[in-house]
Amino acid sequence: MNRIMKEYEFINKSEIKHNLDKELENKALSQAMNSRVKPHFIFNTLNTIAYYCRNDAATARELVLELSNYLRSSFEYPEEFISLKKEISYIKSYLYIEKVRFDSRINVIYQIDYANTDIDIPNFILQPMVENAVKYGILKKRQGGTINISVKNFGKFIAISVGVDGKPMDEKLIYDLLEGSMKDNSILANIDKRLKKLYGKGLYIKSEENKGTTMEFYIPVEDE
Fold first, then answer.
1. Which domains, from first to last, does the chain contain?
2. pLDDT over 90 for what percent of the chain?
3. Banded pLDDT at 18 (limits 50, 70, 90)
4. What are phi and psi of 106, to 5 degrees?
5. Could you please report the per-residue DSSP string of 128-189?
6. How far lies 86's CA from each of 89, 93, 127, 134, in Å?
7. Which residue has the higher pLDDT, 124 or 158?
8. Taken in order 209, 214, 215, 221, is the CA torsion positive or negative?
9. Which of 181, 176, 145, 165 is nearest to 213 (CA)?
10. What pLDDT, on a 0 to 100 scale, did the predictor assign at position 171?
């Protein structure tokens, strides 16, 4: 009887831990999804479309198409994984809109090996990284800057990175973010936690004076 009770106690604790882990995972996914639906971004984009309807119908049409594609990423049922090719499509729509809005303040460089974009990556990882880089790494500067999105194949893993030029990140901020000691639930901290949970390794952040900041993560490639 005691043995059965102990086994039941072990199973019960395991179920509780599993449920708590699942609850935290769902909470992080929900928070990430909510971060995608930005009313101000949609409102500003609609204003931009209204302006181009009067001045440049072709650009207005393209903006509508890109906004439609971008919103598809926000309103589709949130799966845990998404194809990298689809995620890049959403990112390109977002950056096209921002490029039209801010013109020369945003420069975009894509270094993407498209032969390796059929893999699945965790949802709500790459796009929030890009949006965070634009908001805090580029638009905080009056002159703007350049964002570089890279996808490279290193055999056993795919390296995916988002880089911005300009002032480097504060070293303490990087440490707090990667060590999980940030006081607020920042998007990057949650991304780092999810990557560590899925792959055992989180974000790699390299930040240097006069070179800017690059955030990178790695997706293992299964042997065929």
1. 2-220 (3.30.565.10)
2. 56
3. very low
4. -120, 120
5. HHHHHIIIIIITTSTT-EEEEEEEEE-SSEEEEEEEE-SSPPPHHHHHHHHTT--SS--HHH
6. 5, 11, 11, 20
7. 158
8. negative
9. 165
10. 85
The H-assigned helical ranges of 37-134 are 39-55, 57-75, 84-102, 126-132
Of 46, 43, 72, the closest CA to residue 60 belongs to 46
State residue 58 phi and psi, 5-degree precision. Answer: -65, -45
Q: What type of residue sits at position 128?
A: P
8 Å CB contact between 163 and 148: yes
What is the sign of the dihedral through the CA atoms of 214, 170, 201 and 90? negative
Query: φ, ψ for residue 55 (rounded to 5)?
Result: -120, -25
The half-sphere exposure of 24 on its side-chain side, counting CA atoms within 13 A, is 11
pLDDT (tens digit per residue) in 53-66: 999 999 999 999 99
Q: Per residue in 72-84, pLDDT tens? A: 877 765 678 999 9
Radius of gyration of the CA atoms of the chain, in A: 20
**Tokens found for residue 210:** 């006069």
Q: Cα(144)–Cα(53) distance, rounded to whole angstroms?
A: 26
CB 194 within 8 A of CB 125: yes
The reported pTM is: 0.82
